[in-house]
Every structure is written in structure tokens, then in C-alpha cells.
């Protein structure tokens, strides 16, 4: 959807429905990933499936891949918990900046 395009109320209704389904599905997937990670052993599990424990200069603050994957999962889970009304966001956090490394300019 381009900004400034003329749309009908029916198109907006369809878009809202589609986006809410996508948002719900993403929240469910994030919750499942977080549950998988926490019940499987957290960073120990991440290391066992191949994430490195050495400092990686490609990651913010040169943290290890294990720590970075854990941090990203935790951050995404906060968003899912906000969706479900189970969390508050304090202090403010720029998730777009946090996740931009992963989407690396990709657009839909």
C-alpha cells in the first residue's frame, strides 16, 4: 500500500483485517520461539544448536552470537507481551533500530 493512494472503506477494512491477522500470527510465533528458548535452556541451548560464544564485532557491542540471539528473542517477546496486554514498555526502546540489522533494508 502506497501512502497517498486513494482507497475505499472496503479496501481499508480488508487491509485492517489482514494486518491484524499478521500481527496476531507474529505475536504467536514470537511467544513460541521465546518459550522454546526458555524451556530448552536459554543461551546454553542456543550454543548447543550452533550459536557462537565468542565476541563478534559484527554484533552491537561485539557481543557473542548467542547473547545477541537471546537479546533479540527477549526484545521480540516484549513486543508480543505488549500485544497480549501482559507487559509495559519502560523505558522507551527503539525496536526499529534494534531489529534493522536483521531486516537490512529489506522491504515488503
How would you sum up this structure, described in words?
The protein is an all-alpha fold and 108 residues long. It has one domain (9-103). 61% of the residues lie in helices and 0% in strands. It has helices spanning 9-40, 43-48, 65-83, 95-103. Helix 1 (9-40) packs across helix 3. The longest helix has 32 residues, at 9-40.
Termini Cα gap:
10 Å
Our count of helices gives 4
Low-confidence stretches: none
Structural class determined from secondary elements: mainly alpha
- How many DSSP-defined strands? 0
- Any idea what the shape is? elongated
Order of helices and strands: HHHH
Largest sheet: none
> How large is the share of residues in beta strands?
under 5%
The percentage helix is: 55-70%
Domain tally: 1
Radius of gyration: 17 Å
Mean pLDDT reading:
90
Key features?
mainly alpha, about 110 residues, about 0% strand, elongated
Summarize the helices and strands and which ones pair or pack.
Layout lengths: L8 H32 L2 H6 L16 H19 L11 H9 L5
Helix pairs in contact: 1-3
Structure summarized in a few sentences:
It contains four helices and no strands.
